[in-house]
Beta-glucosidase
Amino acid sequence: MSTNKISSAFPDNFLWGAASAAYQVEGAHNVDGKGPSIWDDFSHQPGTTHEGTNGDVAADHYHRFKEDVALMAEMGMQSYRFSISWPRLFPSGRGTVNKAGVKFYSDLIDELIKYGIKPMITLYHWDLPQALQDIGGWESRETVEAFEQYAALCYQEFGDRVSLWSTFNETLIFIGMGYFTGAHPPGLSDPKRGIQACHHVFIAHAKAVKTFREYQHQQRIPQNGQIGFVNVMQPHEPITDKPEDIAACKMADDLLTHWLYDPVLKGEYPSHILNITQLTWGVPVFSLEDDDLLKNNICDFIGVNYYKREWIAANPDISNTKINTTGNKGSGQEFGFKGLFKFVRNPKSTYTDWDWEIYPEGLCVGMQRLKERYGDIPFYITENGLGAKDPIIDGEIVDQPRIDYLSSHTDAAESAIKQGIDLRGYYPWSFIDLLSWLNGYQKQYGFVYVDRENNLQRKRKKSFFWYQEVIESNGAKR
């Protein structure tokens, strides 16, 4: 852990926050007119999640948001990144607006502002309205148009008070695990359908950016307002210097990084990968306006979700898309796609109980690599944290490993600033213990513990008080 310092390299206007997502924290899955999402449906199917856990109640943030915001204020949070539940606003994905849903988010925003906490809204954190999945989900252009309508409603209702927005969270995960590995809804393993769905996500993003700027021009959103895109940042390294491992690592970069960053920061796909997908599967299919939409609607910033680095090896023979969801260290198998690449463990590295490598320097390395490819773009670290089974000792949640993890990663963030990275905020995952999509409530990330045996009582962890000092000192004490 770092020693206390008098000052830090973090600028005075740096935003110290924390993050969450609607499905994982809100609960109230069927109250006040909310419609079902794909996760409401998927998590109720046998065998899809750890011990059948779901977001029906989650942390019940929907009913307890004032209590939660007061805790945010006590900790000193300057910003709160949260997502809006699309089916809470449009129960059928489009058409009739649910006024009770609009009121909930309006009240949440007002409560944050009352305490001087700056909202950062994520429009899509994976909970697609089930009604839209029933007509094809992200494979359908109708969903693209519905997302544009949904984004416009959010700008109209909340844009006067919210200046930081992002469209999508982690396309790599909700498309990759939804359409390639089948672990997330809609539970498919079909690259052709997945690539087309991914393309529609980028078009929906571009349309939402275009609408955002129209609202900004009309002065319905602050002129200093910004809209971005949130991606996984996962630096890759070849496990050896063998040509086949280096080639596999380059392929991992192209497919898992460049394919997902290029469309929102360059307005186009990596041409050589696009040629491969179109020759192999005939996708993505472009509509006439798609090229111009991508080119003319580059986002204002990039949000990076950083948890780990991956070591890459050539993969002539293994196809495995299962991951460690038990929290038993070493129980995960090598993840990989035959003929492309696989993720392998480095015996010299340190790993979490979920087999994620702990490598703080990757936070700085990853942003430097992105800067080299895309120029001097603004960054927000929109997620970063340690998933663990936190020990309770004499009634205190002693999550020292989380403090050590976050301390080392804020060191890396400060190093990035010193090296010229335009880093504007840090949002650890997560403010409060919430539902892990596949791991249930056994995998904890929060500064605030939720006692599921005692009426969801909130309890401050040791990390709560640590982060309080970090914020108060603008990163000097950590």
